[in-house]
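Example for tutorial group B:
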């Protein structure tokens, strides 16, 4: 049998991934056990199908990426960092992920 093909626009984020809606347009994707680099890769996998939509309607997506840092007791600080990076991406008006570490510095260059 050949390799199983996934439908376009479907991203497999692993069995432990959890998507949570925070607001009308805001979602948090929790991916336990993933590195910041893997989280950025997932953000790109989500972004690419949106960026390639060939339609009369313009589609954009703004993504904030963060990680729970060692010593943090819960997700709240990581979600706040991701929200800040999301709003920076929205302000720039581009369809790109903007990751941020606990230090407030980007996890990787834009």
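The residue assignment follows.
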């Amino acid at each position: 049998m050949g390799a199983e093909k996934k439908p376009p626009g479907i991203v497999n984020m692993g069995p432990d991934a959890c998507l949570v809606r925070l607001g009308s347009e805001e979602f948090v994707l929790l991916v336990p056990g993933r590195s910041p680099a893997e989280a950025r890769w997932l953000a790109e996998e989500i972004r690419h199908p949106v960026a390639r939509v060939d339609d009369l309607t313009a589609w954009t997506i703004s993504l904030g990426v963060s990680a729970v840092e060692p010593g943090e007791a819960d997700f709240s600080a990581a979600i706040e960092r991701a929200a800040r990076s999301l709003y920076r991406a929205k302000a720039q008006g581009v369809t790109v992920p903007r990751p941020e570490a606990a230090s407030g510095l980007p996890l990787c260059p834009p």
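The chain is about 30% helix and 15% strand. Compare this with the pattern of hydrophobic and polar residues in the output above.
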